[in-house]
Design a protein that fits this description.
single chain, alpha+beta, Cathepsin B, Chain A, 9 helices, binds 2-acetamido-2-deoxy-beta-D-glucopyranose, thiol protease, protease
Amino acid sequence: MYLLSALSLSVAAIFAVAVSVDFAPLSDAEIEYINSLEGNTWKAGRNFAASDLDRVKRLLGVDIEANAEYNKLHLSYPKMVYPDGDLPATFDARKNWPKCATIKDIRDQSNCGSCWAFGSVEAQSDRHCTIRNITVRLSPEDVLSCCEDCSGSPGKGCLGGFPASAYDYWRKTGVVSGGPYGSKDTCYPYEIPPCHTPTPNCTKLHATPQCTRKCIPGYPKSFEQDKHYGEFSYAVKGVELIMKELVNNGPVTAAFMVFSDFMSYKSGVYKHVSEQYLGGHAVKIIGYGTEDGQDYWLVANSWGTAWGMQGFFKIAKGSDECQIEDAIVAGIPQK
Ligand SMILES: *[C@@H]1O[C@H](CO)[C@@H](O)[C@H](O)[C@H]1NC(C)=O
Ligand SMILES: *[C@@H]1O[C@H](CO)[C@@H](O)[C@H](O)[C@H]1NC(C)=O
């Protein structure tokens, strides 16, 4: 009896130390603590200035609970048919489709909670290539600014939205091309300049840009001519089906819970150590693998290439880490 309770007490004590840090988000103390943890699968470092916390929280533009509800009501859950055969142990869509340049993209949402638009158009762009052999970099701004049903209310774009609604928009309205801020070779490039850290210009949330429904001057096509459409969109549930979907069709959109330590991710396979929840975030999964015995998903973030591993990260696979396996959305482009 005594032995048992002593044992469970020490297990509880170890558990408490291993899964919970109560340091100030983005503090040096939090970073040092993560890197000091025995057996931790990832490394932390400085991606954002500690003073940027308020701005950084606004990058998280998905309400996880509302998103789950939205998906239940708006997405189909088809029984997709995939070819027989074993799945590869490691998969990286960049290597599988080397000609599909957009898979390698890391974009920058800047100080706007537009992750839901980025995570969606990024995967849609890739699939125009992987499935239809068309190279196009779709415009997050078209979705962010012009989709009136995407955020519950028009103009709410930078305050957040639902990936599945961005897929509806792609199917019904189409999405024009759109590269990074300042680029000239697409119809509707991103209008919000990147934030440099620490950045006096980005202390406030950027207002959602007005929808113009016009390509930039000099672009050779009209807004309507430049639209690229989805044929259908759907949810993917279950680790093995997500893997099959990635291998057979290409990148997918995911949403997950962000804890404070994620902001300081630098390398390795992320599992949350902090319990300080900051908000929900949408991203694009491009592959999977195993590192030092830990299975992971390979993911593209939209916080520029200075964040994480040149903008990418790995997160534990198979344990629904931060609910990343719960809200997968995928789509098939029209011919
Ligand atoms: C894909 O598109 C390229 C460029 O338009 C073309 O050269 C190639 O033959 C196409 N591949 C297939 C499988 O259709
Ligand atoms: C901040 O904004 C001002 C005025 O718009 C501009 O001149 C300056 O270059 C910006 N600084 C940075 C770091 O973006």
